[in-house]
Write a structure and sequence with these properties.
The chain is of the alpha+beta class. Helix content is 39%, strand content 23%. It has helices at 2-15, 50-56, 103-121, 136-142, 172-180, 187-206, 209-212, 215-228, 237-246, 274-284; strands spanning 17-19, 35-42, 66-74, 81-84, 90-93, 97-100, 127-131, 146-150, 154-156, 161-163, 166-170, 229-232, 252-255, 261-264, 267-270. The strands form 5 sheets. A 7-stranded mixed beta sheet has the order 1-12-7-2-3-4-13, sandwiched between helices.
Length: 297
């Protein structure tokens, strides 16, 4: 039984999609406190059939872009943190000048995005994972759906959802629409809050006894994870398990503090402020982040 389980895990590990994301470069941050994951949401539809695109309301855009960027930090003594990096944060992209942070992925893929995050934050990225549309809904359905509590109803035909206010269980299609929708007055900033809430709920459900001890949930979850994730060449399924376990209970969820709105060559952006620098410096040094830098909304 044990050998069979190990064999299946090794098999699924070999099926993970991999990419060279964490390459060394001159001047790379040598180390920082704890363990840091860079999690990227890609809008690639490459693995979806036409029927799946219609069922999930993903649209037909080609190519791959990222406008969801999250850092997960744990292991430095305090509570684990899920940190949203707004896509409009204006940063220096190595070799490319100043742009919104999400441009790094378009300009140079995962490798340039990792380098951009590291050089601006001072954090060493230890692991990388990119999730696309394909398989995401299957992960959610595998664990029996995810309960989310909404302060207000959300009706977004573009994301394919019409959700009522209050607590409810979202299936895979609804969950995908929930983390994609920008149907709010403050658009992306509200969306990243919802994404953090959803990720914390998914990790809690994935590590619950009702999932781990139920092979009809556990193995479909593993299969959905493998089909939807792209990780660094050095990452394995046991690293993903450790990530989920670290986030299983009450992580701190925050949005990166910034210097406010500015107008740049890239349009409306968010400035990198002294508060941004202080926020990441505390994390890199393994210190408690000052309360005034914790932005939950």
């Amino acid at each position: 039984m044990v050998l069979g389980t190990i064999g299946l895990l090794v098999y699924f590990d070999s099926k993970l999609n991999r990419v060279d994301a964490l390459s060394n470069y001159e001047g790379r941050v040598a180390s920082s406190a704890g363990t840091n994951w860079l999690l990227v949401g890609s809008d690639s539809r490459a693995d979806l059939s036409e029927a799946e695109r219609q069922a999930l309301s993903t649209g037909d855009s080609e190519g791959s872009r990222t406008d969801t960027i999250m850092l997960v930090h744990f292991g430095s003594g305090g509570k684990p943190m899920i940190i949203s990096i707004p896509r409009d944060l204006y940063v220096d992209i190595p070799g490319q000048g100043s742009h919104k942070v999400n441009a790094a992925f378009s300009l140079g893929g995962p490798k340039l995005l990792v380098q951009t995050i590291e050089t601006n934050t001072g954090l060493r990225i230890d692991h990388y994972a990119e999730i696309g549309f394909g398989g995401f809904d299957k992960m959610v359905d595998a664990v029996g759906g995810i309960e989310m509590c909404l302060d207000a109803p959300i009706n977004d035909p573009l994301a394919g959802i019409d959700l009522k206010a209050g607590c409810q269980t979202l299936n895979g299609r609804e969950a995908l629409g929930f983390v994609r929708t920008r149907a709010f007055a403050n658009a992306d900033l509200e969306r990243v809050v919802n994404q953090r809430k959803f990720m914390a709920a998914l990790m809690k459900k994935a590590t619950s006894a009702s999932t781990i001890l139920n092979p009809f949930r556990f193995w479909p979850l593993v299969n959905g994870t493998v089909s939807s994730l792209t990780v660094d060449n050095g990452d394995h399924i046991w690293h993903l398990a450790r990530l989920a376990w670290a986030l299983r209970s009450d992580p701190v969820t925050v949005t990166t503090p910034n210097g406010g709105s500015i107008l740049t060559d890239a349009g409306d952006s968010l400035a990198w402020g002294d508060n941004t620098t202080a926020f990441f410096a505390a994390i890199a040094d393994g210190k408690e982040v000052p309360p005034e830098l914790i932005q939950t909304g």
